[in-house]
């Protein structure tokens, strides 16, 4: 665990215990006043009763907190949480009554020396039960409302990070596609086609226009269907083939049932772009890029293989770093990215996503 996480957890624990001590101390003042003025406990026993009241409140609610954390109740939707909270309030209220009655019985029999029936003392519920119900309801509702607020803040923070990251990737992607080398080669290829093959030149202009338009506007969407993403990839490959000609080929394999599944926008294109930049472009003979998208139980596996080797620039590129951050924010621990050399001359970039991807992720 990092130092920042340790400090954060320590701060949360300190806040929790501060609220516990302060809250139960304030609540217990009323009962201290009551036993002092009505029951004549005396200063020492009033103070002792006051401390025990605080201890009972903290003990019961802390036990509930530990149990709720163990069962991960704070991760439940509201309806399922209510089914657990209401019985918990009743159980804690009953325990609150029993502990207070035992405390009361011990005082009057052991300290005051009066004769009291234990079972009679134990079943004395009014008004202690109502007090217990009120106190436990307030505590449990405040506890879960606090965690609900914290979860909403964390979600808002993550969404803001994802939005910022998406914008940054948009700029990175646009910058890469608008670099002079890319445009120079594309425009030169188009220029040479204008006289030789006007229809092909028009097609190339359309491809370049669509690609740049996608860079500007598709990045506003966090997710895109695999079908639409592959359409962008095919346009990108077709445009790059003007430069590479027979040196570049793309073989795609797609499970048809995955066409409408949502994935991070331009994630496959980034892998294809890296495969060309760090693989095909470095080889005189070029090579074949193999794209495979399959379903494996509850996961989608996107694999891009190309000839070449992993270099420090390849593995530490801004594009791949941003992709990893997007996956972490978007899917938490349910998604992953791997870049490996599967043999001496082949590099594989692989994205693993949960199958249940949708716009609400």
Layout of SSEs?
Layout: H1 3-37, H2 43-70, H3 78-111, H4 118-122, H5 128-177, H6 180-196, H7 198-217, E1 223-225, H8 226-244, E2 248-254, E3 262-264, H9 267-278, E4 287-296, E5 299-307, H10 312-315, H11 318-331, E6 336-343, E7 346-354
Parallel strand pairs: 2-4
Antiparallel strand pairs: 1-3, 4-5, 5-7, 6-7
Helix pairs in contact: 1-2, 2-3, 3-5, 5-11, 6-7, 6-8, 7-8, 8-9
What key attributes describe this structure?
disordered C terminus; 5-stranded mixed sheet; two-stranded antiparallel sheet; rod-shaped; alpha+beta; 361 residues; single chain; 2 domains; Heat Shock Protein 90
Write a brief caption for the model:
Keywords: Kinase, Membrane, Transferase, Transmembrane, Transmembrane helix. This protein has 361 residues and is α+β, with helices and mostly antiparallel strands.
Number of helices: 11
Distance between the termini: 26 Å
Class derived from helix and strand content: alpha+beta
Helix content: 55-70%
Helix and strand run: HHHHHHHEHEEHEEHHEE
Largest sheet: 5 strands, mixed
Task: Please report the first level of CATH classification, the CATH class of the largest domain.
Answer: Alpha Beta
CATH topology of the largest domain: Heat Shock Protein 90
Radius of gyration from CA coordinates: 33 Å
| Overall pLDDT metric | 82
Pfam families: His_kinase
Keywords: Kinase, Membrane, Transferase, Transmembrane, Transmembrane helix
GO molecular function, one term: kinase activity
Organism: Gaetbulibacter jejuensis
């Amino acid at each position: 665990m990092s130092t920042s996480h340790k400090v954060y957890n320590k701060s949360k624990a300190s806040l929790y215990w501060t609220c516990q001590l302060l809250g139960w101390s304030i609540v217990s003042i009323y009962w201290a006043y009551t036993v002092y003025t009505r029951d004549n406990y005396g200063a020492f026993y009033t103070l002792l009763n006051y401390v025990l009241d605080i201890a009972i409140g903290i003990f019961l609610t802390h036990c509930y907190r530990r149990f709720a954390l163990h069962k991960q109740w704070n991760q439940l939707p509201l309806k399922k949480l209510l089914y657990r909270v209401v019985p918990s309030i009743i159980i804690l209220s009953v325990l609150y009554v029993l502990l207070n009655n035992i405390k009361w019985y011990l005082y009057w029999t052991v300290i005051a020396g009066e004769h009291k029936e234990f079972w009679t003392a134990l079943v004395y519920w009014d008004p202690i039960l109502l007090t217990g119900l009120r106190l436990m309801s307030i505590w449990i509702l405040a506890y879960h409302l606090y965690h609900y607020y914290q979860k909403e803040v964390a979600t808002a923070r993550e969404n803001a990070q994802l939005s910022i990251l998406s914008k940054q990737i948009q700029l990175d992607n646009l910058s890469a596609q608008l670099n002079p080398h890319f445009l120079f080669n594309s425009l030169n290829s188009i220029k040479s086609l204008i006289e030789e093959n006007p229809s092909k030149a028009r097609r190339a202009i359309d491809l370049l226009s669509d690609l740049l338009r996608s860079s500007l506007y598709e990045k506003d969407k966090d997710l895109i269907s695999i079908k639409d993403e592959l359409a962008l990839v095919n346009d990108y490959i077709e445009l790059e083939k003007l430069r590479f000609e027979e040196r570049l080929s793309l073989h795609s394999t797609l499970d048809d049932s995955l066409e409408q599944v949502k994935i991070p926008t331009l994630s496959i294109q980034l892998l294809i772009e890296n495969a060309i930049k760090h693989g095909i472009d470095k080889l005189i003979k070029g090579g074949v890029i193999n794209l495979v998208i399959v379903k494996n139980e509850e996961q989608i596996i996107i694999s891009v293989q190309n000839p070449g080797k992993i270099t420090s620039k390849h593995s530490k590129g801004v594009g791949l770093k941003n992709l990893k951050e997007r996956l972490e924010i978007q899917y938490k621990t349910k998604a992953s990215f791997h870049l490996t050399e599967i043999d001496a001359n082949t590099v594989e970039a692989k994205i693993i996503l949960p199958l249940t991807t949708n716009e609400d992720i």
